[in-house]
Write a structure and sequence with these properties.
The complex is a heterotetramer, with 2 copies of chain A and 2 copies of chain B. Chain A is α/β, with parallel strands linked by helices. In chain A, 40% of the residues lie in helices and 20% in strands. Chain A folds into 2 domains: 2-205, Rossmann fold (3-Layer(aba) Sandwich), CATH 3.40.50.970; 209-335, Rossmann fold (3-Layer(aba) Sandwich). Chain A has helices at residues 6-20, 44-48, 60-72, 91-98, 101-104, 134-138, 151-163, 186-193, 197-205, 225-238, 256-266, 281-293, 317-320, 324-335; strands at residues 2-5, 24-28, 53-55, 76-80, 114-119, 144-146, 168-173, 180-183, 209-212, 217-221, 243-247, 250-252, 269-276, 302-306. The radius of gyration of chain A is 19 Å and the shape is globular. The longest helix of chain B has 26 residues, at 37-62. Chain B contains 13 helices and 7 strands. Chain B has a 5-stranded parallel beta sheet with strand order 1-2-3-7-6, sandwiched between helices. Chain B has a two-stranded antiparallel ribbon with strand order 4-5. Classes of the chains: A alpha/beta, B alpha/beta. At the A-C interface, helix 4, helix 6 and helix 12 of A face helix 4, helix 6 and helix 12 of C. One thiamine diphosphate (TPP) sits between chains D (97, 136-138, 172-176, 203, 205-207, 267, 271) and A (29, 58, 60, 82, 86, 89).
């Protein structure tokens, strides 16, 4: 076990992946000498050189598009998009090319490309630096989407995503980059060195986890809102309410089975994410929970997300984003039934 | 007539006049030096067979056997000439009209029609042919091609002087030059010295829009803006196409970076079988270009030097006819595989959304065989 | 009343808008002399000239981006995206610029840009020509999204969208372009010439309509699936089931109020759209119906959409898309409770 | 030292050496002819005040009063010089670093900081100043600028010879030239003869990446690829910046279409206050460029010709100081408006999702004042 921040865990995870497989290379803006604006690639340029840690021209479509070409020759590019709000110029390459090439080629071409996206808010940033666009990608078949909430998951999941033959959007909750925890480095190394390592990794990446057990309400979160959900559970516990927290980890596939299992026990579900509530991940999850656990529900599934406005000035982000009060309010509401 | 814009003949490399006379081009002659009569005849032959295939596909579309067809009519010299300049170690990224290049890469032409019959999106093994799948989103493959070329460089397949040295050729149209992706590809290729030849087939139209809607200057000039050497040539001259492309490939394979070529040609047919070109261009224009037919030109030259016999011509037409027959039979014989195959290859590893829908669909289908259809 | 196809209705609607306001202009690929690949702009280039019916370079980001600039000077650009699958290169301009400029400028800048998108399937086309990306835009605050299902709505709605001060995505069900019906041209003309015409138009555009009344099941559709929903209602009627059909018309805002009202009466809801079910419009609507009508529902809200695969070869589109059998099956399922 | 790449001095127009000697430039001298000493002094003055403001903003950020600051340090000549060449009828599309241009357009500098204090995304009325809002998505405003220019043309504000004739100036950085949008803007501007000046401030870095990662040739060359006339000039020379921009604006206003300018300058500070430039560039480089400081240069020139007194210098510094004080006070006085304002201006007309959330939020807030906070 080694103590790591989440940023450090991703850094070490990438280093391990690069050592394991010479085909792994990093691409992005300012990821070389600078180590990325969040320093997540710190030290890698020095140790692996500019051919494996590539500072690219300032063009996101170009980055994803050329990564696709490199992946066609067996490389495993790991892209850093500098901030969530700058992924949109690459939207076409991700949606019409990266997502569909395996299908288009009837399985002949694999594109093991990982797109790392530091996402979500709470860092006091200017416009476009606090977006949560994960649902936009989840609606496109062919992509896998995950988001770690802890240093351990960050360390494991980045390596599993790199090892998987499918393309990944890897959403990193940037406000959690400096959270520190003990990380076990051995388990994922063992998994990936196994005979069916990539398959096992992909399967594991597809599953959520129960982060805290409880029996009154199922509180679902992922990435940046998991910590908030745990805080809510603490506060609720002090009020005599037992909250089960599910950390989804994966948005595509969406592990609704774990949530449905929990919902069947608690009968009450609240989903929390930073993205605007409308048309977000919570909508899909709510719809599925209803489909699969309707007769177990005591109350409608509630969602707490960002409001239906553009991300406001950072002075307002605490109120704009789900916060303790708003989530507790939703818990109150599902408990009234 | 456009005298310096993108439809002008400014700076065109040409080796064969439109009536089939040979002209000298000092710079590129060495790259055509190995073209003996037999090879030229083979090129002419492929162009002829390609055109036959093209017409057959059009007629299959008219008869409802295909949803759409995208003819390469008029662009045979640009495609076959450049295709002949390739070697096994090279890799091609076509757009969606490069059936001629497909032919030179060993793709069995009828197979292309699987796409246009609505059976599947890709119809050959790119690795087996050194020929990527067609890409329909204009310009987006230019970036894949650039990344692929960067990877070839990384793999030691550039600048060694060995036969394994290779380069990428990326084909796209005049319209595509306006897309951000194509320009970003020039940026990435230039700063990485990627071994790639950007091959613009300027067929003068992007569907109905003339090239003047995309540029105020000849498209070959685009390269200069990115520090990429460029050449403009007569795309209806198979000799020039071969020689200039060979030169460009040698540059790219040697490790000096990208090259941009503009083949100035003419789309003799409509954009696709869904298009009606009479809405936006004149008969006179079409006739002018019919006189510049790329096949007629090399045919006249070969006949002129006594290297094309009536028998050879007859043979080629017979072959085209046979291919047409085979194509028609093949197309009609293809019946769609079971619907359940639509769930295959969404991902390389199982994905619960796909698997649960696949399972649901199987149950749903069984429910009909079990108790008869609903409506 | 004049008989029009849907394509004709949009064409006439645009003509009326251009005659009403000299600032209205059309932009797109091949919309001039050719009249657009679907001929929706037929004749307008001839009558209004190339300055108001502009054949643009082949670059969707460029089209939307320059339209934004023109709108800043008071123009009202109406863009044609040639096919649904080609809107993605413009995604950044739509999401980070068009949607947010009004907010960014604190109301100083209006961007009355309409983006027409012939969308959805059933025309036997090749890849990228049958997509249904509406939910991707609905998740972005700042955009309005509508889709007509009839010639009358097409005629009215295109004019209302053009008159509104907000940016619109206008999704045209291309397989319905040739459906013909009688169209009343007077009503919208009267509305728009009124003092608060633009406001009235925007408000009306935000509302769905009950296309057929019924009492057992609420069947919700929009654009291309409305006709299917009506067919389902016919068949179901012959089996003794009374189906209410709601044509949403608007995706953003989503008129859940109309659906909830209906759901409270029927207690059963099925939503049908061509886009993949997962993370689609149906998810949001299902979640809202549950939130607002939970205790009235006899069964979970069900969704019938495209499958979670890329759009397959057109030979399979009938099975890939919602069809009579699949929607009837869903109706059966909600009726079992 | 780069001799022909994007960091070379190849083809730079220059009117003032870095030690402040005047040099003649035949082509552009006429465009600087109206620059009397008073005007030059005013430019120097603005550059000086701007720098003072810049340093104040940096220190406000360090003290936690701002979330971020983006200094224009070192780019004062490029910005003030070009800003002086503008007239009221022109319209500017800045990126996010053009505080100097903002100053010349009458924006009260402290207002800019509302953005960086996290209060709002836009901080002035674009129409009132002929100066659009900052755009943070690199390159995307180049298209807005082009569309705006096309609309000016349509509105009869180009090529009439009247004072109402105007043009757009669109500023962006060296890094931005790699974005598809910037290249598409060149396409659209060129084919529409749009009255626009694309003004590349090549400050040699896109955050940590040197311009060599974006191009293998000087960025001014980019224009040629699109048929757009281009000029490269010493961006630390306020005379050259003024003269070349004036020329470009006259071209654009006259109706001949777009022009591309490259101001070759140097970002003397870090990219933003979040950046650490020591990670990627050398002290030696910084010192080399410190000797080429754009303010020192024109100051030396004005002093040399006896047109800058000690009093004037003192006065300018006092003014900078006063502005600093005013800025600090203003920034600290701004408290955020009520949170409910985040629901304003999402749409121009009511939208049910926004209105219902606004109403919910009001109820939610009231529930706290009514019965005390939850946690
Ligand atoms: C991004 C995108 N936009 C629009 C289209 C629709 N479209 C298909 S082909 C075409 C014209 C292409 O012209 P050009 O690049 O000159 O190639 P050509 O067809 O002439 O070979 C258009 C607009 C598309 N396929 N992709
Ligand atoms: C589309 C996009 N990608 C990435 C960023 C993050 N970013 C902000 S500034 C910058 C560098 C810009 O360099 P340049 O264009 O040279 O302008 P400069 O900052 O040097 O003035 C980057 C990468 C962004 N703002 N937008
Ligand atoms: Mg063309
Ligand atoms: Mg820069």
């Amino acid at each position: 076990m080694t103590a790591m921040t989440m940023a450090g865990a991703i850094n070490r995870g990438m280093r391990a992946a690069m050592e394991r497989d010479p085909k792994v290379l990093l691409m992005g803006e300012d990821i070389g000498q600078l180590g990325g604006v969040f320093r997540v690639t710190d030290g890698l340029w020095k140790d692996f050189g500019p051919d494996r840690v590539m500072d690219t021209p300032l063009a996101e479509s170009g980055i994803v598009g050329t990564a696709i070409g490199m992946a066609m020759r067996g490389y495993r590019p790991v892209i850093e998009i500098q901030f969530d709000g700058f992924i949109f110029p690459a939207f076409d390459q991700i949606t019409t090319q990266l997502a569909k090439m395996h299908y288009r080629s009837r399985g002949l071409i694999n594109l093991p490309v990982v797109i790392r996206v530091p996402f979500a808010g709470h860092i006091g940033a200017v416009e476009h630096h606090s977006e949560s666009p994960e649902a936009l990608f989840a609606h496109t078949p062919g992509l896998r989407i995950v988001s770690p909430a802890t240093p351990q998951d960050a360390y494991d999941m980045i390596q599993q995503a790199i090892a998987s033959p499918d393309p990944y959007l890897f959403f990193e909750p940037k406000a959690r980059y400096w959270d520190k925890a003990e990380v076990d480095e051995a388990r994922v190394a063992t998994q990936l060195s196994g005979e069916h390592g990539a398959s096992a990794a992909t399967a594991e990446l597809s599953r959520g986890r129960v982060a805290r057990e409880g029996k009154d309400v199922t509180l679902v979160a992922y990435g940046p809102t998991v910590r908030l959900a745990m805080q809510v559970a603490d506060v609720a516990a002090s009020e005599g309410r037992s909250i089960e927290v599910v950390d989804l980890r994966s948005i595509s596939p969406l592990d609704s089975a774990t949530v449905v299992r929990s919902a069947k026990r608690t009968g009450r579900v609240v989903i929390v994410h930073e993205a605007p509530t409308a048309f977000g991940t919570g909508a899909e999850l709510a719809a599925r929970v209803m489909e699969q656990a309707f007769f177990h529900l005591h109350a409608p599934v509630l969602r707490v997300g960002g409001f239906s406005t553009p991300y406001p000035g950072s002075k307002f982000e605490h109120d704009y984003l789900p916060n303790l009060d708003r989530v507790l309010d939703a818990v109150d509401r599902v408990m009234t039934h | 007539m456009d005298t310096q814009g993108p439809l002008s003949e400014q700076g065109l490399v040409r080796m064969l006049t439109h009536t089939g006379e040979r002209i000298e081009d000092e710079r590129f002659a060495p790259y055509a030096a190995d073209l003996d009569a037999a090879t030229l005849r083979a090129m002419w032959h492929d162009m002829t067979v390609l055109r036959g295939f093209d017409l057959e596909a059009t007629s299959l579309q008219r008869q409802g056997e295909l949803g759409l067809w995208v003819p390469s009519l008029g662009q045979e010299a640009a495609q076959i000439g450049s295709g002949y300049a390739l070697r096994t170690s090279d890799f091609v990224f076509p757009s969606y009209r490069e059936h001629g290049v497909a032919l030179t890469r060993g793709v069995d032409l009828p197979e292309i029609l699987r796409i246009f019959r609505g059976l599947q999106h890709g119809a050959w093994d790119p690795a087996a042919h050194g020929f990527h799948l067609y890409t329909l989103v204009i310009g987006s493959h230019a970036l894949h091609a650039t990344g692929y070329a960067m990877a070839m460089d990384r793999d030691g397949l550039v600048g060694t002087g060995a036969e394994t040295d290779g380069a990428v050729v990326c084909y796209f149209g005049d319209g595509a030059t306006s897309q951000g992706d194509v320009n970003e590809a020039l940026v990435f290729a230039a700063v990485n010295d990627a071994p790639i030849v950007f091959f613009v087939q300027n067929n003068q139209f992007a569907i109905s829009e003339p090239t003047t809607r995309q540029s105020r200057v000849p498209l070959a000039q685009r390269g200069a803006g990115f520090g990429v050497p460029s050449v403009r040539f007569d795309g209806n001259d198979v000799l020039a196409s071969y020689a200039v492309t060979r030169w460009a490939l040698e540059q790219a394979r040697s490790g000096t970076g990208p090259v941009l070529l503009e083949a100035f040609t003419y789309r003799m047919g409509a954009h696709t079988t869904s298009d009606d070109a009479t809405r936006y261009r004149t008969r006179a224009d079409e006739e002018y270009w019919a006189e510049r037919d790329p096949i007629a030109r090399v045919e006249a030259y070969l006949r002129g030097i006594g290297e094309l016999s009536d028998e050879a011509i007859e043979e080629a037409h017979a072959e085209a006819k046979a291919l047409g027959r085979r194509t028609r039979e093949a197309v009609k014989s293809w019946s769609p595989p079971p619907t359940s195959t639509i769930f295959d290859h969404v991902y390389a590893e199982p994905h619960t959304a796909v698997e649960s829908e696949r399972a649901w669909f199987a149950r749903f289908e069984r429910s009909f065989t079990d108790k008869g259809a609903h409506a």
